[in-house]
Amino acid sequence: MKMTAKLKNRIAGVFAILAVGCVVVPRQYYTLHMPEAPQPEIGRIIPIDANYGKTVYLTSSEARHMNIAFTVALVSVGIVAAAIFFHAWQQFKEAKNEGA
């Protein structure tokens, strides 16, 4: 099954939106809703530079979720970059075959 350019663009767009969402949404949420001072009694002792130099404190579970979201974003960017490279490579090969 050959994928059309429109479908490829849509898939790349979905991964790009996923990447942006996985980075921006948690950082904005934590910036607005988490304390700026540690709260050892409830386990909020892990400092995170959430946004524009503002440090907030998270529990280990919250920090793990933020790290997972960042990892998903990096993987999504990698998939989009690989898809773009693969598409460009295919076009290069087709142009080379037509010229030969």
What does this protein look like?
With 100 residues, the protein is mostly helical. It has one domain (20-90). It has 2 helices and 2 strands, in the order αββα. It has helices at 5-33, 60-99; strands at 46-51, 54-58. The protein has a two-stranded antiparallel ribbon. A hairpin with a 2-residue loop joins strand 1 and strand 2.
The geometry reads as: rod-shaped
Strand arrangement within the widest β-sheet reads 1-2
Strand-residue fraction?
5-15%
Number of discrete helical segments: 2
Multimeric organization: single chain
Q: Which class best fits the helix and strand makeup?
A: mainly alpha
Proportion of helical residues: 55-70%
Radius of gyration: 20 Å
The main sheet comes to: 2 strands, antiparallel
Number of β-strand runs: 2
User: Order of helices and strands, N to C?
Assistant: HEEH
Mean pLDDT: 87
CA distance, first residue to last residue: 26 Å
Count of domains: 1
Unreliable segments (pLDDT under 50, ≥5 consecutive)?
none
Write the layout of secondary structure elements.
Elements: H1 5-33, E1 46-51, E2 54-58, H2 60-99
Helix pairs in contact: 1-2
Descriptors for this entry?
100 residues; mainly alpha; two-stranded antiparallel sheet; 2 helices; 2 strands; rod-shaped
Short description:
This protein has 100 residues and is mostly helical.
